[in-house]
Amino acid sequence: MEKTFIVSNMKEGLQRIREELGDEAYIIKKEILGENDSMLQHFSGNKIKLTATDQSLDDIPKIKKKDISVNTNSTACFEKNDLVSNLYSQLDDIKNMLSCLSGKDNKDIESPEDVFEFGSKDLNNFYRRMVENDITEILAGKFIHGLSKTDVNVVPEEHLREQLSNLINFKDLDTEYNVYVFTGEAGSGKTSTISKLAITLKLRYNLNILNISFDTYKEAGFYQLDSHCKVVNIKSIKVHDSDELIKIVEENRKIYDLIFIDTPGFELDEEHSTSFIPTELKCKKILVLDSNGRYRELKEKVDFFEKIGFDGYSFTKIDETFSYGNIYNILSYNNKPLVCFAHGQEIPASLIKDKEKAIDIILKGLC
Ligand SMILES: Nc1nc2c(ncn2[C@@H]2O[C@H](COP(=O)(O)OP(=O)(O)O)[C@@H](O)[C@H]2O)c(=O)[nH]1
Ligand SMILES: [Mg+2]
């Protein structure tokens, strides 16, 4: 038999149910009478409507056994089960309320699994690995979407290798344009990179290289450059202002295969830094970026040096970074190529000038 009771509280309800339906009775429905059911009203003494039955458990399809595995002899447990299910429904209300407040319908919030649940498990896992290695969710998502659109048999690592291959261009630097300015923040590794690069190219291709130090802030910068490079007969000279720089470059442009120009370490808050390299100087500019740091910070640096304009990146301190994803993020940010990178303090050994080796190192850090 099923019966409805209108009571003031659960204690009264349980007592009446036991009296009328016996000790084996169960509550199958509970409603708080009044306005909408809210937590506040639950505790404010509104009337409660209880529907109970003395049928056996197996005959009650709506109620899961585990939810009401106690009988009315145990009043405390009876109330607890009821309260728990009530709390769950209150939690649902709160969740809905919060999503309304945030202006989003729950259904619109997609987790990575939802986005790619139509793809393979491998793709999902690869996406996660990319994100765990600090590749932005947007770029990782684009990558996986691109992959799922192309060929189902493409291995994600290979696709990433191909993409990196398009983002890295080490060749340009060796030949075509022969005046290179290295710019970047103080301590990013400009002077070390020039030393490594000049010595490597001299030893590997016997190129005729001139270094010009335009580091008017740090006297030691010139000696740092000169002391390493003179060992392999690379000349380094120091200039003191833009006019002298332009004069020396023009005098030597045709004599040397390559001219590398070292600059002072700019600070991002120094607006004058952006006009430091004379615009009339025909050169290519390499932004030297310390690969440590968060993507947002790196992007800020890139935006700052974009005011001067630059043609490619040299990442340094790869040996100290845990965040290889940022290299991918930055290279994808404005599609400027990576022209070389350094993974240690050793001069010249820690410079990577071999494209495949560079890709191997980045992939290893990412996958
Ligand atoms: N671990 C590590 N240290 C580096 C790397 N490149 C440069 N450094 C160190 O970073 C510091 C600043 O380098 P420096 O070339 O003087 O930077 P600059 O101020 O931009 O010219 C020095 O102590 C370098 O030895 C690198 O790839 N890895
Ligand atoms: Mg320096």
UniProtKB/TrEMBL annotation:
Membrane-protein topology: Peripheral membrane protein
Coiled coil ranges: none
Any one GO molecular-function label of the UniProt entry: signal recognition particle binding
Gene3D superfamilies in UniProt: Flagellar FlhF biosynthesis protein, N domain, P-loop containing nucleotide triphosphate hydrolases
- The source's domain of life comes to Bacteria
One Pfam match, by short name? SRP54
Report the residue ranges that make up the SRP54-type proteins GTP-binding domain in this protein: 177-364
Compartmental location: Cell membrane
Whose protein is this, by species? Muiribacterium halophilum
Q: Name one GO cellular component term.
A: plasma membrane
In which family does this protein belong, per the annotation? Answer: Belongs to the GTP-binding SRP family.
Q: What GO biological process terms does the UniProt entry carry, in alphabetical order?
A: SRP-dependent cotranslational protein targeting to membrane
Q: Which InterPro entries match?
A: P-loop_NTPase (IPR027417), SRP54_GTPase_dom (IPR000897)
**What name goes with this protein?**
SRP54-type proteins GTP-binding domain-containing protein
Keywords linked to the UniProt accession: GTP-binding, Membrane, Nucleotide-binding
The opening ranks of the lineage are: Bacteria, Candidatus Muiribacteriota, Candidatus Muiribacteriia, Candidatus Muiribacteriales, Candidatus Muiribacteriaceae
